[in-house]
Write a structure and sequence with these properties.
The chain has helices at about 5-10, 20-25, 45-55, 70-80, 95-110, 125-130, 150-160, 180-195, 250-265, 270-280, 285-305, 330-340, 370-385, and strands spanning about 30, 90-95, 115-120, 135-140, 165-170, 195-200, 225-230, 245, 320, 345, 345-350, 360-365. It is of the alpha/beta class. The protein has a seven-stranded mixed β-sheet with strand order 2-8-7-6-5-3-4, sandwiched between helices. Strands 9-12-11 form a three-stranded antiparallel β-sheet. Helix 8 links the parallel strand 5 and strand 6 (about 195-200). Helix 5 (about 95-110) crosses helix 6 (about 125-130). Bound molecules: pyridoxal-5'-phosphate. Pyridoxal-5'-phosphate binds near residues 36, 123, 169, 239 and 244.
Amino acid sequence: MRDFVASHIKTVPPSGIRRFFDIAATMDDIISLGIGEPDFPTPPEIIRAGVASLNAGETHYTSNSGILELRQALAEHLERLYGVRYDPETELLITVGVSEALHVALAATLEPGDEVIVPEPCFVSSNPEVVFAGGVPVNVPTSVENDFQLLASQVEELVTARTKTLLLGYPNNPTGAVMSRERLLDIARLAEQRDLLVISDEIYDRLVYGVEHTCFAALPGMWQRTVLLGGFSKAYAMTGWRIGYAAAPAEILGAMRKVHQYTIMSAPTMAQFAALEALRSSEEAVQEMRGRYDRRRRLIVEGLNSIGLACFEPRGAFYAFPSIAVTGMDDDEFSERLLMEEKVACVPGSAFGSCGAGHVRCSYATAYDQIEEALERMARFAQRHG
Ligand SMILES: Cc1ncc(COP(=O)(O)O)c(C=O)c1O
């Protein structure tokens, strides 16, 4: 029989995150710092709105773009937060999470062989999605020396005649890095000079601590060359509802809508009504969760540093990304042995790109007392192997 699997799909390795969860799932008394989603339940008013929409008979497809009220509320929300203006009729698309938004953004804009610059460490789907869309990911390493921020000079070195797109993801998963406005302005200038499209995944925009999030599309001259991706999964604790959005100039958004229309039809209807309620009434809940993440963030960063696992201070998302160099282990071995010996799960940094090696991702979307206990176990482990 022929080999039916496409060769470009074979080049994509399975996610390095799954393996540890599969092992952890078979063990008791595990503390997981491996999870990339809020531990909080969805705020009750959002759940009520989703359920109410079902009871009201909203069980059909919606407009391909998503319900207009949600797009209108989103347009107001983005303008209020960042001063960016999008026409709800033509420049906003409601998607099945940022996952789908990323997929349609790449599928709608890449020609086969187009190069996409992807800073690493990055979200595990970034490189595979570029490949699925026929593009070629060109990775640029970020490092702790620059607070895991991307420098325009690094991007400039990699731009070729085939480069079409720069994929940004800040606040960053897995490092927690937030880009300063100045560094983003440098990147904006470069994007203009080299005529790049910027796809900016800002799913963690609401989860920043002591700094301001800069929306890339709001920078001078960037609106017209930016696809802004955002969502509800993280800030509103709505991962299971599967709702995100894309905002872009009408011509690009129209192309994305075409891909979305033929592959997805419309995002889940009850989840769209729930997301609408989230925008209308859940700001307090967002701030409450953000405050609690911040408390845990300070606990985990201080704790990791005090046990000798040097940890850069993350300013966004809900991840700490300590170096495990002092143990002499690589990040795979560290994660596996920590899991086996102390029953603490974290994710090897190299799962997010080769420059993540020597680090592990510890999520603090876990209860405060669990983080305290995890730190005690990690201290024992570090002492044994330091
Ligand atoms: C950077 C980043 N982008 C996108 C996603 C996917 O989010 P969604 O649930 O909206 O598909 C995640 C999830 O972990 C993420 O970390």
